[in-house]
Amino acid sequence: MLSSQKPQKSVVREYVEAILIAIILALFIRSFIVQAFKIPSGSMLPTLQIGDHLLVNKFIYGVKIPMTGTMLVPWKSPEHDDIVVFRFPKDRSIDYIKRVVGVAGDTVEVKSKQLFINGAPITNPHAHYTENSIMKASAGPRDNMGPVKVPEGTIFVMGDNRDNSYDSRFWGFVPVKDVLGKAFILYWSWDLNEPLMSIDRFTSIRWGRIGDIVY
Questions:
Q1: pTM higher than 0.85, yes or no?
Q2: What's the rounded Cα separation, in Å, for the pair 205 and 2?
Q3: What is the number of alpha carbons within 13 Å of residue 59 lying toward its C-beta?
Q4: 52 and 207 in contact (C-beta within 8 Å)?
Q5: Does residue 98 have an active-site annotation?
Q6: What residues does each domain of the chain span?
């Protein structure tokens, strides 16, 4: 009686297959479910600090085709106060992170630093100001801007560090299709001003921020 046996895989082949599966899973997770980002600037201070590393939920607004941004299965649109990561409209190779202050149909206006949505003043506990002086509208849109109506398929975003944020006040609206996801948790944080291999860099780890929910 003859018995047939499947040839055993070589150890090298098993490792190669395992690595390929791991890469495919990682790419799938990064493209459709969650992606890691780090904060390089202070435009979202004090909510997000330079050196914060966070995870972004890419599934919350729906399933998109990677690279193109075409929505396959929509769940919902970005909402007021969501902190979102998106492709910068002026250079889509760069990712920005800001807070949503206006959605399609809203009328957005800034008067003497005060944000108005549809004519009503908005008090946001996350908004942070570092300067008392008011910049005239003729000098720039930082403190006085609008009113402007948010078009369909777009959002209006601002940094929490209102006096030091390059955002929709300066360059306009963000297409919803360019929103990569919503920030939801900090998984690491340290002071990037310290040299990478110095002892001070490791003592600058912000243990109290790790695991914080982003809102």
A1: no
A2: 65
A3: 7
A4: no
A5: yes
A6: 11-209
The Cα–Cα gap between 176 and 78 comes to: 8
The helix/strand/coil state of 200 is helix
Spot the catalytic one: 64, 98, 165, 168: 98
pLDDT at 10: 77
CB atoms within 10 A of CB 135: 15
CA triple 164-214-171, angle to 5 deg = 35
Q: What is the pLDDT of residue 43?
A: 97
Question: Is the bond preceding residue 46 a cis peptide, omega within 30 degrees?
Answer: yes
Q: Cis peptide before 195, with omega less than 30 degrees from 0?
A: no
Q: How far apart are CA 120 and CA 114, in angstroms?
A: 10
Task: State residue 19's pLDDT score.
Answer: 78
Catalytic site includes residue 38: no
Please pick, among 43, 165, 168, 189, the residue that the annotation labels catalytic. Answer: 43
Which amino acid is located at 38 in the chain? K
CATH node for 11-209: 2.10.109.10
**β-pairing, 114-117 with 120-121?**
antiparallel
| pLDDT recorded at residue 26 | 62
Spatial distance between the Cα atoms of 55 and 77, rounded to a whole number of angstroms: 19
pLDDT for the residue numbered 200: 75
CA geometry: angle 102, 138, 134, nearest 5 deg: 70
Question: Assign residue 53 a region: left if phi > 0, alpha if psi is -120 to 50, beta otherwise?
Answer: beta
Alpha helices in the chain (DSSP H): 11-28, 168-171, 199-203
| Low pLDDT (below 50) residues in the chain | 1-3
